[in-house]
Amino acid sequence: MNKHPARDEILGQVRAALGRRAETSVANVPASARVGPRQAGDANGEIEMLLGEIAKLGGNPRHLESKADLEAALENLVHEEGVKKATMWQTSELKELGVAEYLGTLGVEMISPHADRDQLADCDLGVTGVDAALPETGTLVLRSNPEKPRLVSLLPRVHLAILYPPLLDADLGTVLDKLRDDSCVTFITGPSRTSDIELTVTIGVHGPKALHVWIVEKTDRS
Amino acid sequence: MRARVQVFATCLGENFFSDVLKDMVTVLERLGVQCEFPEGQTCCGQPFYNSGFQSQTLALARNWLRAFANTTGYIVAPSGSCTDFVRHRYLELFPPGAPEHPQVEEIASRAVEFTEFLTRVLKVTEMGAHFPHKVTYHAACHSLRNLGLRDEPKLLLQAVEGLELVPLAEEETCCGFGGVFSVIYPEVSRAMMDAKVKNIQASGAEYIVTNEPGCLMNISGVLQRIGSPIKPMHLIQILASSKDSSRPSP
Amino acid sequence: MSAIPTHIDFRRNVQSVEPQVPASVRKATTRFLDTRAAVVDVIGQESWQALRQAGHDVRLHTINHLDYYLARLEEEVTRAGGHVHWARDAQEANRIVLEIAQEHRVKRVVKAKSMVTEEIGLNRTLVDAGVQTLETDLGEYIVQLAGTGPSHIMVPAIHLTKEGIADLFREKLGLDALPEAARLAALARAQLRQEFLAADMGITGANFLVAETGTLVLVTNEGNGRMCTTLPPLHVAVAGIDKVVPDLESLNVLLKLLPRSATGQKMSAYTAFITGPRRTEEENGPKEFHLVLLDNGRTIILQDEITRETLLCIRCGACLNVCPVYNHVGGHAYGFAYSGPIGAILLPQLVGTKVAADLPFASSLCGACADICPVKIPIVEILLRLRRRVVEGDTVEPAVSPATLRLGVQMVARAMSIPWLYDLAGQLLRIAQAPFRRGAWLPSLPPPLNRWTMARPLPALRADWRAAWRRRTPEGRTRQRRIRIALVAALASAAAYVGWRLIQRQDRGE
Fold first, then answer.
1. Quick one: pLDDT band at residue C399, thresholds 50, 70, 90?
2. Using CB atoms, which residue from C231, C265, C273 is nearest to A179?
3. Among A185, B103, C53, C505, fewest CB within 10 Å belongs to which?
4. CB distance from C50 to chain A under 8 Å?
5. How far is CA B11 from CA B19, B133, C448, in A?
């Protein structure tokens, strides 16, 4: 008795159509199917390009020189976006920056990212780090693991992504190579958007309505 | 006489646009090219092939090859579409191994579209033409995409004395002819033509010029039906116009 | 709309296109083409053409080794903890998804936009079995409310105005909204947020399936794709077997081509790379991941070496945007899930030549589609191959055109390949056109030529070139005189013959 009639039939038909046999080995992907990587410009230019692309997409990028800058920016953000509840990735980089503590002093209630999803959906702000960024397209790369729950960048109304340290990759190809071991990697390029109604660009459909991207320099790290 | 060419009249050319063919010969002779017309030619088979009757194309293609066998020189047509068909599609109809294949390689490769012949073979754009009018140009799909003639026809027009070439919006968008398509789906074809005519009218030109009999038949037909004063012309007719022969519209 | 059609009548569909559709379609396609041109300019024409070639080569390599990559994909998805199912046709795929749903007592399904589930009519199967199935892409949500199908691959509700959508929300959801895009989107967001949180199962398609890693790649803009693949405990992806790519490096090419060609974005807002279900130590993400690999006619498409390249398609929709035919008729005219040039070549192969014989002819063969295609599908070549299939039949399917038509065309083609007959026919037609002639034009002709004259007049047949040519030389003039005499003699004897037969008939009292 054949346990997988559909599978075997489909693969059989594919082989028959292509004139191949099950044991026919595969040729390597031809060299003509590859493209060379994009070359990075100078470091500042790359950072400017990243922030410029994000701004063009309706995101809010900032380049912060120090922790003091960060605190001022957080205060501003909480005020402007009306943040009452926030949740955050549990990575050492973000802990090191003291984001949660400072949000606490601003009167923001911190919700654990392990809380149930209705509570996360109720958060005004989700703070994540960034695992890589592509300046050419303004793309943030977020990996997923127990420290970096997927919902933090998805359910809250506002997403704040902090690049600390700023991990920029010149080209998509080099980033893709880092994705081999993750169950879920998300590329985020600007806030969620749609043009489905009469082509009017509308920001904030199902994902966060606002995206803030801050590059924080590691200068004052002791 | 420095060169000899064979006139490839094409069926639309000889049945509907004999003036264009006469003008083609006039221009070529003015440039010192001797013209011959092999009378055995009929249709190259494209309308049959493009309608799906591809096996019916063979008899026509064989006749075409017979007609131009034992001739010398380039085979010049007033149509990019027919040129493209014999030059490229005959190789597929008669692939290596077919008895006609060597003939295809020898004969069909000599086929050139008229503006292609002028600009790429003779390498002339200036031929003393005079046409003191505002003209706009519609790029025929097969000339443009299959023969890669994007700038050449316009270079020829720009070299005409007195001619003002004005841009046509969506110049490279199909006019809605498409051979059998125009008969199977007249409503869509008409909608495409209306869009084309709107752009032609907006260009402010007195003349709409193209280098493809199919497009010319289509565009001139719709201009006639709507009673437009804009006059359609084949590019060859413009090149044949000289100071002493200010010609009426076709 | 998800019902698979039994016959697609393109001309009738065109005639029933609502008058506002072409303008709104054109507005969208123009926008996409403009933004696309801008991002292609940033890359530069030369690099873009190199990318297209690479895209073509990687897709063709995959399709030419499809069995290998599918087997590899299955292995890797399974290794990552996912389940792979194989479906020979729409019915089997629907049954598999329904069984997964029933096994898990699923009551509510949220769906991300997927052309392939439209192709198999999955929603109907689930709804008929009592499973609430909700489209969550805003455009798909709207057309689902309207009870129609998508009219553009990227903007499904392109044919509807904001006023129409506001009416729809009022009628179907009981929600009053101002006809403003932002208001309507906010309403949909609020409605769907609850559904995402409550759903038992998320269904998506796939943009790419990476054989090397078993990774599903989803390219979206709204975030609904992420919701569908993150919140429900169960994720089912349905994908055609053509969606596989060899490795992550292939995506380096394809992810550069897809969003730029589709919407003119350098990258879509969200591109998710999903490999199996969530890991045991993770809290977010589905506990189970199922991948349904669908054939539904694709292995037949593989059989012909030219039409095979149809399967290179990455569903960007650029060919729709640039197509002058699509721009004047919109997506619904194509009668089923896929439209535009890709629909014209894909549908006849998926649903059969008999059902979709009209579609390969719904093109002026202008070639703009093949020029813009990011993976260089030779769309015109495939259209021609399918036209031949319709008319003459081939190794894949028999002809559907009537044998009498074939015979008639054969006679015409033969006659036209005989030079004297061709010449004579031209002269006879020139005489025969007299009753229809108005000056230099034939404004109205009898069927089937009325199909031409209903749109524009035909120039009167001149057929005087050969005579003119012959008159250039003395020998030619002699020849022309003889031909003329032969023609008159032939006409006179034909007239005499007809007259004689008529007299005979009268004599017999018929």
1. very high
2. C273
3. C505
4. yes
5. 13, 30, 19
Residues C483, C350 share a domain: no
Q: Quick one: residue B210, left, alpha or beta (phi over 0 = left, psi -120 to 50 = alpha)? A: beta
What range does the domain containing C363 cover? 312-391
Provide CATH code, domain B134-240. Answer: 3.40.50
Structure tokens at C146: 């309207």
C126 within some domain: yes
**Per-residue pLDDT tens for A97-146?**
999 999 999 999 999 999 999 999 999 999 999 999 999 999 999 999 99
**Residue of chain A with shortest Cα separation from C295:** A10
Alpha-helical segments (H) within C231-339 = 248-263, 298-303, 318-322, 324-329
Residue C414 has pLDDT above 80, yes or no: yes
CATH of the domain at A113: 3.40.50.10420
How much is the average pLDDT of B213-242? 97
Quick check: is C397 in a domain? no
- Of A114, A187, A194, which is closest to C185 when you measure between CB atoms? A194
Asked if pLDDT for residue A25 goes beyond 80, the answer is no
Residue from A132, A153, A140, A146 nearest A87 by CA: A153
C347 in the same domain as C446:
no
Residue B2 has a pLDDT of 67
- For residue C344, give the 3-state DSSP assignment: helix
Q: What one-character DSSP code corresponds to residue B137?
A: E
Both C63 and C212 in one domain: the answer is: yes
C244-245 and C208-210: which strand pairing?
parallel
Neighbours of chain B (3+ CB pairs under 8 A): C
Structural domain total, chain A: 1
pLDDT tens sequence across C432-480: 999 999 999 999 999 989 999 999 999 999 999 999 999 999 999 999 9
Q: Would you state the structure tokens that stand for residue C39, as one six-digit string?
A: 């991002």
Residue C355 belongs to some domain of the structure: yes
pLDDT category of residue C504 using cuts at 50, 70 and 90: confident
Q: What is the pLDDT of residue C425?
A: 92
Going by pLDDT thresholds of 50, 70 and 90, the confidence category of residue B245 is: low
Residue C40 sits in the same domain as residue C113: yes
Residues C64 and C109 occupy one common structural domain: yes
Q: Return the amino acid letter for C85.
A: H
Q: Which residues 60-119 of chain C have a CB within 8 Å of chain A?
A: 61, 64-71, 74, 80, 85-88, 92
Tens digit of pLDDT for each residue in B20-29?
999 999 999 9
